[in-house]
Specification:
The complex is a heterodimer of chains A (about 350) and B (about 375).
Chain A (H helix, E strand, L loop, with lengths): L18 E9 L3 E4 H8 L10 E4 L6 H16 L6 E7 L10 H8 L7 E5 L5 H14 L5 E9 L14 E10 L5 E13 L2 E2 L8 E2 L5 H20 L8 E4 L5 H10 L3 H4 L5 H4 L6 H10 L7 E5 L4 E11 L3 H4 L6 H6 L2 E2 L2 H7 L7
Chain B lengths: L3 E8 L10 H15 L7 E5 L3 H4 L5 H8 L6 E5 L5 H14 L5 E8 L7 H8 L14 H16 L7 H11 L13 H6 L2 E3 L2 E2 L9 E9 L12 E10 L14 H14 L8 E3 L5 H11 L7 H6 L16 H5 L6 H14 L13 E8 L4 E9 L1
Parallel strand pairs in B: 2-3, 2-4, 9-10
Antiparallel strand pairs in B: 1-7, 1-8, 4-7, 5-6, 8-11, 10-11
The chains are: A alpha/beta (about 350), B alpha/beta (about 375).
């Protein structure tokens, strides 16, 4: 007889069959809009800047094309038969279609159809990690051998709004499979979710709205610290047990502050802190940070990743890098290589690329 | 004359209390005030609040707060006079007890700004001005203060940075107040570098909107329960005045006439003189309003109120200490709760229970003044340690 656990006690999500990351891939579009360029147009160059610059997708890019890029990189690293993918799941808040999945196009492009699940996930900036938890469940239960989870965004920022400085583009794809085939084992995850309306966009609205400082303490900081603390408590770990940590990164300050609140130092978060140079990639933000960490991590190193999605919730993951990392990571373009592939644009070009001019 | 004493005080920290509701905030202050009053049972509740119908979609606040505090059955009303709501509520409580109609009155001030965000707050605040003639033109409360400040600087040749002393004094005192929103001293350079809000009003020339609640229990001296060890503080006098609501209707926008009248009346009723006042809690929602209040009260001649901040006269060791617990600038501006915070803070100083870093020595008389807008309402109370 099993003992029912208390309704409100933190419950680790731990698969029956150990799982991990078999392959991963990132994608960052080429164009960069410096934050000072946004300030030049909107504030006469005054005021602090939340990041250095953000990545901007080109005219022919969207969440579908970018997801395919990342998915192909993940496939290159995993070297598996795409027909073995039992799911292709894409989390985003900028799916090109309101009705019609992004994921079927991605699945078709990488050859995973037709014997597969395909669905789009939505949970603001944690849609990608929500898909990752589901992939852990699918593989961890034995229903499938491999599942792909993607988090990708071409984030929308209202012209002149504080978020226009940071709303970037990019993301990552992960292939989840059995632990023994993995370059990093995901021991468990923990999710902390409440009804906290800090940021939203209703149907037919072009740009999201946010609750200003309400997005800070009661939203970002509360959910991330609760999720991270509960996961570490259940796992019996402390910040010292982790070589690296990655937190959702809407701007430069928030992840730095939440890291020190939790007891992590700046060295632990440095490799995964990409927001200063690519902006907030929303559903891609925490997980693209993880790809940059996996690009440099050594076997045996432990990684804590905590996402945050408005509305609001956080998923925390306890990840252990295996010796398979060394041979696999060089099979595809690394995240930092995407970041250094850079073409700077001005605000006018940005307005054109992002379709912000009303043409009819 | 009946002596009205402050039997108990309560207050919450002034902050952005995202997770505490309007009623909970008020309850926290009420609970402490009643506890401190040694078991006195309030017969009437006067709630000072400025904008809960706009900010929290909640009118009929007095009853809600009485109900939530377990006081159903007693008389309960809301008193609104914009930023002076707290002072006005305190005066209603005072009048009720002084008249003998009520034995024990509970006065609670509460404001919950964070139920609304961004321009919604500005819009709500603008409703406290003349809506048809000021707000409709896009005038905000800071724009109004900017007009007054610019005129004052022009008329009296105030140099750049002339108002810095108000913010510096407030922040220096806020350090010692555990309930203050800002407990950090600032340097003149920080003031000089501050971003402009509405030229010439910069970030440090205006008080921050914040959530908070404060409460006092009032009774007549002879009804005080035995065994209350705290030194007793009484309300020596109370006065309220009004001016034109719209700034443009005034013959002289640099004279806070209502503030002047209310101080004159409060002094007259108290039987003491201005020089007997040991400290002054003014309504520094904007530094220009602090300067004009000093002049209206008679502490400084016309056009020279700003000099009292510049020369240290308002500092803790100065001629007339002001904003002794941080004032609106550093403690924060919890709207209609502000006047009740001033009462709680004055009681704290008079009892000698402030933090040693900001405790005034041997203070006997404290004057507190609550303003609505640019002193369209002014409520002044003089408190005495007995």
């Amino acid at each position: 007889m099993t003992t029912p656990h208390s309704h409100n006690s933190p419950t680790l999500l731990k698969p029956n069959i150990p799982v991990g990351i078999v392959g991963y891939g990132a994608y960052v579009p080429r164009y960069r809009l410096p934050a000072k360029e946004v300030a030049r147009v909107w504030t006469g160059g005054k005021g602090g800047l939340p990041i250095k610059e953000k990545a901007v997708p080109g005219l022919d890019e969207d969440v579908i094309t970018m997801s395919i890029e990342a998915a192909r990189n993940a496939m290159l690293r995993a070297k598996i038969d795409p027909a073995e993918l039992r799911a292709v799941w894409v989390g985003s808040e900028s799916h090109p279609y309101a009705v019609k999945p992004t994921s079927t196009v991605v699945a078709e492009a990488i050859g995973a159809v037709p014997n597969t699940q395909a669905a789009d996930w939505e949970f603001a900036c944690k849609a990608g990690t929500e898909a990752l938890v589901a992939a852990m469940g699918l593989v961890g239960s034995g229903m499938g051998h491999y599942a792909m989870a993607i988090g990708m965004d071409t984030a929308q920022g209202k012209p002149g709004d504080a978020l226009e400085y940071t709303a970037g583009a990019g993301g990552a794809a992960f292939i989840v499979g059995p632990a023994e085939e993995s370059l990093a084992v995901i021991d468990s995850s923990y999710s902390y979710v409440t009804d906290t309306p800090d940021f939203w966009r209703r149907e037919y609205q072009k740009y999201p709205e946010h609750g200003m400082r309400f997005t800070g303490e009661p939203a970002y900081f509360k959910h991330i610290t609760e999720a991270a603390t509960a996961l570490m408590q259940a796992a019996g770990t402390t910040p010292r047990d982790y070589k690296w940590a990655v937190f959702h990164q809407p701007n430069t300050k928030f992840p730095q502050r939440v890291a020190s609140q939790l007891g992590f130092n700046m060295d632990q978060i440095a490799p995964g802190l990409l927001v200063p140079v690519i902006g907030n990639t929303y559903a891609g933000a925490a997980i693209i940070g993880l790809t940059a960490v996996l690009d440099i991590a050594q076997p045996g190193e432990r990684v804590l990743m905590v996402s945050f999605g408005s509305g609001a919730g956080s998923d925390a993951f306890d990840i252990l890098v295996t010796d398979k990392i060394t041979e696999r990571r060089d099979r595809a373009v690394k995240t930092q290589e995407y970041i250094s592939r850079r073409t700077e644009i001005d605000y006018a070009t940005y307005v054109r690329y992002r379709g912000k001019l009303a043409m009819k | 004359m009946t002596e009205v004493v402050i039997a108990g005080i309560g207050q919450t920290e002034v902050a952005e209390h995202w997770e505490i509701s309007l009623r909970d905030l008020a309850y926290l202050a009420i609970r402490d005030a009643i506890k401190g009053a040694g078991g006195l049972n309030p017969q009437a509740l006067f709630a000072g609040n400025m904008l809960s119908p706009n900010l929290s979609n909640q009118a009929h606040l007095g009853v809600l707060l009485a109900d939530f505090a377990g006081l159903t059955g007693i008389e309960a009303v809301t008193v609104e006079a914009a930023g002076a709501s707290g002072g006005a509520a305190l005066r209603q409580g005072y009048l009720a007890v002084a008249s003998g109609m009520v034995d024990v009155a509970l006065v609670v001030g509460v404001e919950k700004f964070t139920d609304t965000i961004g321009s919604g707050v500005e819009e709500a605040l603008a409703t406290t001005s003349d809506s048809d003639f000021e707000a409709v033109q896009g005038m905000t409360t800071s724009a109004q203060a900017a007009l007054v400040m610019r005129r004052y600087m022009h008329e009296f040749n105030v140099p750049e940075g002339g108002f810095a002393g108000f913010a510096l004094t407030a922040h220096a005192n806020g350090v010692g107040n555990p309930n203050a929103m800002f407990r950090k001293a600032i340097k003149p350079e920080a003031y000089a570098k501050a971003e402009m809000v509405s030229d010439p009003v910069n970030m440090f020339d205006m008080a921050p909107n914040a959530d908070g609640a404060a409460a006092v229990v009032l009774t007549r001296r002879e009804l005080m329960p035995d065994g209350l060890r705290e030194p007793m503080v009484k309300i020596l006098s109370s006065a309220a005045s009004s001016d034109t609501l719209a700034l443009h209707d005034r013959h002289d926008m640099l004279g806070f006439e209502a503030a002047k009248l209310s101080v004159e009346q409060a002094l007259k009723k108290s039987g003491i003189g201005l020089t007997d006042i040991n400290f002054f809690e003014y309504h520094d929602s904007f530094s220009i309003y602090a300067a004009l209040s000093l002049e209206a009260a008679g502490f400084a001649p016309r056009g020279e109120g700003w000099k009292m901040a510049a020369d240290g006269s308002i500092a803790r060791t100065g001629k007339i200490p002001c904003a002794t617990m941080g004032g609106l600038k550093a403690r924060g501006f919890p709207g209609g709760a502000t006047g009740v915070y001033q009462a709680v803070e004055a009681v704290t100083q008079l009892r000698g229970s402030a933090d040693s870093s900001i405790q005034l020595n041997g203070a006997r008389f404290g004057m507190i003044q609550s303003l609505g807008g640019p002193a369209a309402t002014a409520v002044t109370h003089i408190l005495e340690r007995i």
